[in-house]
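Appendix B, example 12.
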Amino acid sequence: MKITKTKLAKGFTLVELLVVIAIIAALAALSTPVVLKQQKKASLAQGVNNAKQISYLMKDFEEQNGVYPTVDATDGYGAAATSDLIFKKFYAAGNWDGDEEVFYAKTPFTIKPDGDEGAIPATDVLCLAPGECGFGYSAGLSSSNNASLPLVYAPLLTTAAMTFDTQSWGGSACYLEISGAVKTIGINGIDNSLRVTRGVKVNLFDSVANTDWPAAHVPVYPVPKP
């Protein structure tokens, strides 16, 4: 009687499995910096695009009301101590009825907007809830001021000081000028400032060294995520 032997399929040995795992881990480690760099570039591009959209809203608001949105109620839409409340005035004025994501910028204190603007965005707490707005705002400016002064800017490091985060956008920031242009600029890694040339390099937001700032200028910050 002939006996047939069944040939068993050979599996991975423990050593071979460990080698495969090591190779996968090495490839993941090599690709991670590239992925993070692309994510930061995407965050910068989104910030620039959103700032461009805000520039149109600023122009429309000024044409309609004679001023940019203010921190007080003289523009007819109530007082606003934070930039998210400032931007809600666009809804109140009828300049904007779209997605709140236009006012988002990735920073250490923001979260992605949930897309819920509420029943009446101009007053509803669901619209631009804490953390959904990422731009700072320069209140007290007008189109008659120096055209190179920044109206909105990001990514801020905190919501209490004019310092910028070097991590969120790969060391870059953007700001919307009164002229309507959106500029990208490297962040000074020593003091997290934005430095521009005014004869010499000065902090863009230093009202002493950068004398283009009017006396009425008031920086306004967004509300951070809980």
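Residues 92 and 122 are 5 Å apart (CA to CA). Residues 15-220 form one domain.
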